[in-house]
Design brief:
The complex is a heterodimer.
Chain A: E1 2-6, H1 10-21, E2 25-30, H2 33-43, E3 47-49, H3 55-60, E4 68-71, H4 76-88, E5 94-99, H5 105-110, E6 115-118, H6 119-129, E7 136-142, E8 147-153, E9 175-180, E10 186-187, E11 200-205, H7 210-218
Parallel strand pairs in A: 1-2, 1-4, 2-3, 4-5, 5-6
Antiparallel strand pairs in A: 7-8, 8-11, 9-10, 9-11
Chain B: E1 2-6, H1 10-21, E2 25-30, E3 46-49, H2 55-60, E4 68-71, H3 76-89, E5 94-98, H4 102-110, E6 114-116, H5 118-131
Parallel strand pairs in B: 1-2, 1-4, 2-3, 4-5, 5-6
The chains are: A alpha/beta, B alpha/beta.
Chain lengths: 219, 132
């Protein structure tokens, strides 16, 4: 797929590296010449020096044949306008915007941006994941499907300990993706994977089923 | 009329002064606290320091009761974003947005904003003067 990434800061450049590794055709549009040079050193000639909100730059980037447009700058107004220009002038089907101020997420949705990534929320969740005593942490939200990838820590007193994870009655529609041992070993759930204290169960679940999932695994 | 103006530069301050003198209820928002020096001593409206792309700042300026919102900042994208907030979140009846970039101006006009580009206007004006 051809993916355009606007903003070559640490987030945009990191993302682009991953996308290149995945085999996608990537173009990073970056305003600072210094950052362009850095990215070119790391990733090769996948950089265009310019303003990703400008039609002239996007035309040069061949935006009309892009499959996905991602705006990753630290300016919400730039991300919003870049995505709107991409969607309405270049008819790119998927536009993803980083939203730096969480209160703006609703506006982006209302204005038709395909999806938003809330940097603050993601960071908060990442930190909360490291704090003991929380039974469930949101790892990744899947906004369109209304499900979250969640991590549930198994406390030492849980009735689920000693049971195979596949034998535990979970809310309908909830899927266990992985069991991660306290030492970090990931295990794909099977009949012989038996829960131990301090395991983390990685599960896909709907928000309304979270309470029942936590009950089933931690009580 | 209740008018909220984003940007207290030359155009914003001038517009605020005119509308205030006409008896309208005016509030000007600017990020720079010193920009109010462009408003004359006779100005009787409000001056609010803040970023008008934020809903809280717009509310403080009285956006909920506003009849008109005008965005005249130096940053096209900030003006566009605030105008869309005024139009789509607060349903302000008349929203006017200055966009320097003529192409971006066309796009957001198509998307329902009342926009104008001083770049295009001035070029046309100069052209017409030459042709006269």
């Amino acid at each position: 797929m051809y993916i355009i990434v606007v903003g070559g800061g640490s987030v945009g450049a990191g993302l682009s590296g991953q996308l290149v590794e995945m085999g996608h055709e990537v173009l990073v549009i970056e305003r600072s010449q210094d950052r362009c040079d850095l990215i070119r050193e790391d990733l090769g000639s996948v950089v265009l020096h310019g303003d990703g909100c400008e039609v002239a730059t996007l035309t040069e980037a061949g935006a009309d044949r892009a499959d996905i447009f991602i705006a990753m700058t630290d300016g919400d107004e730039d991300n919003l306008v870049a995505c709107q220009v991409a969607q309405h002038r270049f008819h790119i089907g998927r536009a993803i915007a980083r939203v730096n101020d969480p209160s703006r997420e609703k506006l982006f949705k209302q204005l038709g941006i395909t999806s938003t990534v809330n940097a603050a929320e993601t960071m908060v969740n990442g930190v909360l994941h490291e704090i003991p005593g929380r039974s469930l942490t949101h790892l990744v939200p899947f906004r369109h499907a209304e499900v979250n990838l969640t991590g549930i820590r198994i406390p030492s007193h849980a009735a689920a300990i000693g049971k195979a994870v596949l034998d535990i009655q979970l809310p309908e529609g909830t899927g266990v993706a992985l069991v991660v041992r306290a030492d970090g070993t990931p295990l794909v759930p099977s009949a012989d994977i038996v829960l131990q204290p301090d395991d983390e169960v990685i599960a896909l679940t709907r928000p309304e089923d979270e309470a029942a999932l936590v009950q089933a695994l931690t009580r | 009329m209740r008018v909220v103006i984003m940007g207290c530069g030359r155009v914003g301050s001038r517009l605020a002064t005119i509308m205030d003198a006409e008896g309208h209820d005016v509030a000007v928002i600017d990020k720079n606290p010193r920009s109010n020096r462009r408003l004359p001593g006779s100005y009787g409206g409000n001056f609010i320091v803040g970023d008008a792309t934020g809903e809280d700042v717009l509310i403080e300026a009285g956006i909920k009761q506003a009849d008109v919102f005008v965005a005249v900042t130096q940053g096209d994208n900030r003006s566009i974003m605030a105008s869309q907030v005024a139009k789509h979140v607060f349903s302000v009846p008349k929203v006017v947005c200055r966009i320097y970039d003529p192409i971006r101006q066309e796009i957001f006009k198509e998307l329902g904003l009342q926009t104008f580009s001083p770049t295009t206007l001035l070029a046309r004006l100069i052209h017409d003067t030459i042709e006269e």
